[in-house]
Amino acid sequence: MGELSGILKDTVRNYVIQSATVAVYKPNDSKLLAYGLTNKSGQFIIKGIPVGTKLNFKASHIGYKTYNKEFYIPIDKKALSLNTLNMGIQPDSTLDEVVISAKPPVTLNGDTLEFNADAFHLDTNATLEDLMRKLTGVTIWSDGLITVNGVKVNNLYVDGKKFFGGDAKIALENLPKNSVEKVQVYKGEQQVQDREPDLNVNVVLKKDKKSGLFGKIGGGYGTDNRYVFDGMLSGFTPKSQLSIIGAHNNVNKIAGSVNALMQYSSFKGEGVDNEYSSDFSKPGLNIESSAGLHFAHEFKPENSLVLDHFYNKSASIVLRSELTVDNLGDNNQVVRSNNATNKSSGYYHKADGNYNLRLPNQTIFAKYNLLNSVSIGSDDQSSETENSQTGISTKGSIAEEERRKFVNVSANFKLENRAYKAKNRDKSFNYELDYTFANRNENDLRQSKTDIVSSDVSSNQFFNRSYKTDLNNSNHDLGFKVPQINTLAKILPRFFNVNFSNRLFIYNSNEKAVVDDILKDGQYQSNGYLTNKSYYRTITEKPTLTVNKTFSNALVNRYNKSLSFQLLLEGELFDQKNSSDKVFQNIQRSYTNFLPDITISYGNQQVGRYESIYTLQYVKTIEYPDINQLAPLVDSSNIYFLHFGNRSLRPAKKHEFSVGVNHSITKSRNPGNGVFTITGGYNEDFIGDSLVYDELGRRILYNVNVSGNKYIGYKGYLSKIYQLKDSQVEFLIFSELNYANSPSFVNALPTALKSSNILNSFNVHYSYRTWLKFGGWQSIRSSSTKQTNSQKFNYTNYSTTTNTTINWPKKVYWNSNIAFNRSVSSFSKPINYTIWNASVVYRFLKGNNAELKFSALDLLRQNKAIINTGTNNSITRGTVNVLQQYFMFSVAYYPRIFGNIGDKKE
C-alpha cells in the first residue's frame, strides 16, 4: 500500500483551494478506495491505496470543474506526489444534464462535515453501523461509544431527532445503509460553562425512506424446561415513533427498561455479538417477564412529546450459605454461619415522559416519572454463632413473611429564558428556573419469628411480631440561576464571569408504625415501644456565587491553549426537625456552613493531534446525622444487629483534594484517550462506629464522632485503537485503588481500621473485516483490612474472559465465550470454576432477517456463585444457587420495511 499527495490551486485568483473533496477510485467499477479533504494550505495526503495499479483521482469543490486524473504508484517508491493541480472555474451558465457515476464521498458545508452514503459500496444487508465504520475519522468503540477524530459524539440524531430514545445502538444496528442519504458531523450550541461545544452526528434519510418498520419475533426451548420468548415491533414516520416490546424467560435474560429491551431485539444485536445472553452470576432460580412501550411525537420542530412505559414481573428462589468472621482484636473473633432460603415475587410499573417546547426566547421542559411496585417474599434463616472472647455459642432461626407496595411519583418543570436585546446584549436578562416535586408512599406488612437458643440458657430469646408501616415522603427542589450577573450589575467587575444560583430543598417524612407481639395463644398484644407516629423534616438553602475566568491563546485550526480559574462560594443553611410519640426522638437543630469549591484547569489543544486538560480541585462538603443515627427505635428482635442512636453526634466536615489529567489523541486514525485522577481527603468529626459484641455474638452499634479519618486513592484508564487495513485492535486498561484509615471502637477499645480496595482490568478487542471478532478481559479485584492488634483479612477475586465470534460462511455465526474464575480468601481454600458458553447461528432469507440458533450454555457444568466480600472488621465467604448447564434451540424473525407506502421496500 502507498500514499498520494498534492496541492489544489486556483491559478486564476492565485488561491489554494481549502476543504475540497479528493478521492481515489478503481477505474473499472468506480469503487471508492480512499478519500479526504484538503487542508488550509490546499494540501492532501491519501494513504492506504494500492501500488502498481492504475487508479482514478477525482477532486471537486463548489464553483470549480471536477478534476480527473489517472495515475499509479510505483511499487518501488510506494509514494507519489501530483505536485500542484490547477482546478478550472465553473462558468456561471446553465449546463447540460451531467450524470455523476462517482459521487463525492465527503464535503464540507459551512461548519458541517457531510459524508455521502451512496459513495460507499457495501453489502445489500449492511446497516448504518457498517457505513459509519467506513467513514474516515469515525470510530465505534466496543462499548458503543462513537468518536470523530478522537472527540466523543454526544448525540446521534436521525433527521434531526432522537431515534427511539436517543440510544445510538438502536439506530446503528437497525437502520439499513441503503436508506441513508448522508451523515452529518457538526458542533452543537456552546454554553457559557463549556470548554468545547458538544459534537453531534445527524443521519439524513433518503426522501423515500423517511418511514420504516423493524423488530423481532423469537423464541426458544431447551433442556431442563428452559425457555425464552421475546418480540418487538417498532415503526416511525417523519413525525412519530412507536415501539411495543416484550420478553419472557427463565434463563436469567434480564432487562430493566424499554431501552434495554430494544437493544436486545436489534437486527444485529444477538446474532453477531451475543449481548443478550444468560446472566450466570445472578443468584437463584428466576423467572422474568417484561413488556414496554415507547412513543414519541413531534408536533413541530420545536414542540415534542416522549412517553415510555415499562412493566416487569419476576419470581425467584435463592438458597444462600455464608460464613462470617468478625474481628474483635487481640485474636478474638465472632464466627457466624448462616443458611437462608429466600422466595420472592412481585411486579412493578415504570412510566415516564417529557414535553419540550422551544419558543424564540424561552425553552420550556417538563417531565414526569411514576414507579408502582408490589413485592411478596419469605425468608427463612438458620445460623450458629460462637464468640471466642466469651466462649458462648448460640443457634438462631428467623422466619419472615413480607408484603410491600410503594408508589413513587415525581414531576419536573424547567424554564430557560434567553432574551437578548439586539442593541445591547449586556442588558439582556437570562435566567434558568427549575422545580422538582417527588412523593413516595409505601405500605409494608411483615411478620417475623425469631428464636435464639444459647449455651447460656439465661440468654435464650424468642420473638414473634407483626409490623404494619405506612410511610409518606415528599421532596421539593427549587432552583434559580442567573448567568453572568456582572453584565447586569455595574458594581461588579466585568473582568470575571459571575453566575448566581440558589437551591432550596425541603424534605418531609411521615411514618406510622403499628407493631404487635403475637403471644403463644395466638393473641396480639400491642408493642408500646415500637408502635409510633413520627414526622421528620429538613430544609436546605444553598445560595451560590460562581466566579470564573479563562485566559486563552489560540491560532485558528492550529492550537488552543487556555488557563481557567473557578471559585464556587456556597453558603448552606440546614434545619432539621423530628416530632414523635417518643419524647427522646423530638429533635430540632439548625446549622450554617460555608462550602467553598476551587478549581484550576489548564487545557492544551493541538488541532488534529491531541488535547490535554489538567485539573486541580478542592471541595468542602458536610454530612449531617439523620434521625436514624441520632435517636432510632431499637428492635430487640434483630438477631445479630442492634443499632442505637447518639444525640450528641456532630456533622462531619469533609475536605477533599483532587488532581487529574485527561489526554485525548484526536487524530483521524488511531484515536485514544487517557484519564488519571488522584483523590484524597480527611474528615473532621467523622461519623464512625463503636461496636460492642454481646454474649450472644450480636453486634451493637453506636455512631460516634471520631478524628483521624483519612483516605486517598486513584482512578485511571487508558483506551487506544489501532486501525489497520482490514482490522481494528482496541485496548482498554483500567485501574483503581482506594486506601482509608478509619478510626473506630470495638468493645469500647479504640482501634484503627486500615483498608485497601484494588481493581485492575485489561481488555482487548480485535476485529477483522466483518467476519471475525475477538474480545478478552482480565480483571483482579482484591481487598484487605488490618485492624489494630489483630490479624490481616484479605480476599481476591480473579476473572479471565474471552469471547470470539466468527461469521463464516457468510450467513453463519459461530460464538464462544469462556470465563475462568478464581476466588481466594485469607481463611479458606481457593475456589476455581469455568463457565463456557457456545452457540451457532444461521441467518437466511434475502434480507438475512430469519434466524436459527443452537446454544450450549455452561458446557462444563461448573458454574458457581461465590460470596467473597469484606467490610470494616468482618469478612464473609459463601455460596448461592445459580443457573447451570442447559442446551437450547431457538428461532427468530426480524421484520424490516423501510420506505414510504407505494415505494420499493428495503
Low-confidence stretches: 270-274, 901-906
Overall mean pLDDT score?
A: 89
- Classify the helix fraction into a percent range: under 10%
The CATH superfamily of one domain appears as Immunoglobulins
Distance between the termini: 36 Å
> How big is the Rg?
32 Å
Under CATH, the topology of one domain can be stated as Immunoglobulin-like
**Structural class based on helices, strands and sheet pairing:** mainly beta
* CATH architecture call of one domain: Sandwich
Q: Tell how many strands the DSSP assignment holds.
A: 49
CATH first level of one domain: which class?
Mainly Beta
**Biggest sheet features:** 26 strands, antiparallel, barrel
The global form is globular
Produce the secondary structure layout.
Elements: E1 2-10, E2 15-16, E3 21-25, E4 32-37, E5 43-49, E6 55-60, E7 67-71, E8 79-86, E9 106-109, E10 112-116, H1 128-132, E11 138-140, E12 146-148, E13 151-158, E14 161-162, H2 168-174, E15 180-187, E16 199-205, E17 212-222, E18 227-236, E19 240-249, H3 258-264, H4 269-273, E20 285-300, E21 303-329, E22 332-358, E23 362-387, E24 393-419, E25 429-454, E26 461-482, E27 497-518, E28 524-526, E29 532-555, E30 559-580, E31 587-606, E32 610-623, H5 627-630, E33 641-644, E34 652-665, E35 672-684, E36 686-693, E37 699-706, E38 709-723, E39 727-746, E40 749-768, E41 772-787, E42 792-807, E43 812-825, E44 828-844, E45 850-857, E46 865-871, E47 874-880, E48 886-893, E49 896-898
